[in-house]
Amino acid sequence: MTDAPPRMTKQRAAVLTVLKQGGFRSAQDWHDRLRHDGSTAGLATVYRALQALTDTGDVDTVLTETGETLYRLCEAREEHHHHLRCRACGAAEDIDMPSIEGWAASVGAEHGYSRIDHTVELTGVCSDCAKAGR
Amino acid sequence: MTDAPPRMTKQRAAVLTVLKQGGFRSAQDWHDRLRHDGSTAGLATVYRALQALTDTGDVDTVLTETGETLYRLCEAREEHHHHLRCRACGAAEDIDMPSIEGWAASVGAEHGYSRIDHTVELTGVCSDCAKAGR
DNA sequence: ATCTAAGTGATAATCATTGTCAAAGAGGAG
DNA sequence: CTCCTCTTTGACAATGATTATCACTTAGAT
Ligand SMILES: [Zn+2]
Ligand SMILES: [Zn+2]
Ligand SMILES: [Zn+2]
Ligand SMILES: [Zn+2]
Question: pTM higher than 0.70, yes or no?
């Protein structure tokens, strides 16, 4: 019943390769980097690849305060986790706070809510960027 | 040095009134409700009023997973807090988790990040909506 | 009444993201 | 290899929330 995984094409391989540069970046950013590296992949294809990789759990996404989606190659695929992200350069650390998971569920139950979901994200400025004056 | 607060106009009063209906709703939703109540306020004016009210701390905002901004009259203006929101009807409870504030700062410091900010939001389905089958 | 700066609302512009669709590419069968 | 079929691609249009414009109105002040 699980859909067959999409075929690995030249474009998707290129997306995966550029993602290894690391950091949370927008689809357009990743697309720019691909073109810079010689790929001719279209923007729509990059969006499709990122969407597919997100669905399979190979890519993490976060939403900025402007509603833009940022994508990053996921390092700890199996575990649910959260991020501490540098607002200046896109670098990010995986963080986990096991107690938050249970806290979210119990707060929801206390108020009579079901199907609880939660969002926990931290942003800041990493030490490198702070040294460079942002 | 603080900018003079914007004048209280008929339109802003109308926005404040309709906001008392409660719940987190989009700017367009609030605009529809205003028109339904007889106001002729334009959509741009509603956006401006919501923005101004947000700046003064009279309105809370939250970002949906689709990047849409939702606005709600703020009940506990002075305290920094987080929300448990019903995805079906927009109802929301203020929640606070004082330990999260310190945790965010210390996790940031551990990783060498400065200027830490954080997002903690819960969503679910409230008991009324659950009874009504969503 | 007159002047002036702020506020309004219809509309156009912006911008990330998604939809469309004809053309290109990859397999498979013959 | 050739023909057929299904997937993927990429240029481009469409969407939808938000913001910018700008001529017009309004609320105070003189
Ligand atoms: Zn950085
Ligand atoms: Zn979690
Ligand atoms: Zn509800
Ligand atoms: Zn907080």
Answer: yes
Q: What is the pLDDT of residues A32-89, one digit of tens each?
A: 999 999 999 999 999 999 999 999 999 999 999 999 999 999 987 668 899 999 999 9
Q: Could you check: is the Cβ of residue B43 within 7 Å of any atom of nucleic acid strand C?
A: yes
Domain range holding A98? 79-134
Same domain for A47 and A87? no
Helix count and strand count (H, E) for chain A: 5, 6
Here the CATH number for the domain that contains residue B97 is 3.30.1490.190
Strand A114-125 to A82-86 pairing: parallel
Q: How confident is chain B (134 residues) per 10-residue block, as mean pLDDT?
A: 74 97 98 96 98 94 96 84 96 90 94 96 97 91
Contacts of B42 (CB under 8 A, 6+ apart): none
Kind of pairing between the strands at A25-26 and A114-125: unpaired
**Which residues of chain B are within 8 Å of residue A61 when distances are taken between CB atoms?**
none
At which of B51, B74, B97 does a domain end? B74
Q: What is the token pair recorded at A129?
A: 């960027």
Which residue, B74, B93, B114, sits at the end of a domain? Answer: B74
Q: Do both B21 and B42 map to the same domain?
A: yes
Bases of strand C lying below 7 A from some protein CB: 6-11, 16-20, 26-27
My answer on whether B67 and B103 are in the same domain is no
Of A87, A117, A124, the CB nearest to B123: A117
